[in-house]
Amino acid sequence: MKRFQALLQGKTLDRALVMGILNVTPDSFSDGGRWVAESAIRRHVVEMVAAGADIVDIGGESTRPGAAPVSVEEELERVLPAIAWVREETDLPISVDTSKPEVMQAALEAGAAMINDVNALQAPGALEVVQHYRVPVCLMHRQGTPQTMQLNPTYENVVDEVKAFLLKRAQVVRAETGLDTNAIWLDPGFGFGKHLEHNQALFGELDAFVETGYPLLVGVSRKRMIGELLGGAPVDQRVCGSVAAALLAALKGASVVRVHDVKETVDALTVAMALL
Ligand code: 7PM
Predict the structure, then answer these.
(1) N or C: which end of the chain has fewer CB within 10 A?
(2) Marked catalytic residue, from 3, 222, 238, 258
(3) Nearest protein CA to atom 14 of ligand 1, as residue
(4) Tell me, what's the pLDDT at 33?
(5) How far does residue 1's CA lie from ligand 1's centre (Å)?
């Protein structure tokens, strides 16, 4: 059975699911125009499928740390064509990385299989969309807004606070939508209003999240924390560090890892599981 369905049915997995991050950047739309974007997206998704991805994550970049807000119209213009192209290339489930209920609804109508919300469905109307379509969701923790969250993140106890927030949101989502435990994934939100010490504390205690019984998703791919741990490595030098972190997360019980480098991550997980 496909790993996505297996996870939703609470079956044991041969390895963690790999969620491949699909580039849908504004650059790929502006320079070179639409055709360049379309062919780049198609090529990228075909490559991810061949490499063993289990889910394709499509985001219109409204949720990125430091990013300027993007209008609903603009986000739809980026995300909807991408969903259509991906669906022409593969049957893999598509998650849409958005916090906007309008984008969630349109993406689900276009065939997306789940919602990945860095705002944990807190926007007015977001819960109602999920209630209506009853699709799996990933709820992420963040402190502050995208514009300000890295300025001065502070916690009394980062693990306790992040866990309490996620459990509260999961409880609300369960009560409002009737979604099963296996369909509500929790994500500590590495780098979203967290300094390196906060990220390290969260990673060190992933157990606390696995213990909740909700599937755990970990996203650290190419993030600043990887660069910092490597003494200031630039983004293009973070692949091995990212793979190491994804593998460790999976060994610590994460059900899903969200990554840019699908082939490298799948190979690492496959070899590790065969030798474990
Ligand atoms: C610039 C800064 C571009 C940050 C992209 C990002 C997560 C996510 C993102 C995550 C879940 C990135 C982030 N990160 N969704 N969306 N978990 N569930 O590094 O960690 O991809 S955007």
Answers:
(1) C
(2) 258
(3) 219
(4) 65
(5) 28
Please work out whether the CB of residue 55 comes within 6 Å of at least one atom of ligand 1.
Answer: no
- What's the mean pLDDT in 47-73? 87
Read off the pLDDT of residues 146-183 as tens digits, 9 standing for 90 and up: 777 788 899 999 999 999 999 999 999 999 999 999 99
Q: Which atom of ligand 1 is nearest to the CA of 221?
A: 19
The question of whether 258 is a catalytic residue gets the answer yes
Q: Which CATH architecture has domain 2-7+16-275?
A: Alpha-Beta Barrel (3.20)
Separation of CA 275 and ligand 1 centre (Å): 31
Q: Whose CA is nearest to atom 19 of ligand 1?
A: 223
Span 205-232, pLDDT tens digits: 999 999 999 999 999 999 999 999 999 9
Task: Check pocket membership of 116 for ligand 1, CB cut-off 6 A.
Answer: yes
Domain ranges (residues) in the chain: 2-7+16-275
The edge-to-edge listing of strands for the beta sheet with 217-218 is 184-187, 137-140, 114-117, 94-97, 55-59, 17-22, 256-259, 217-218
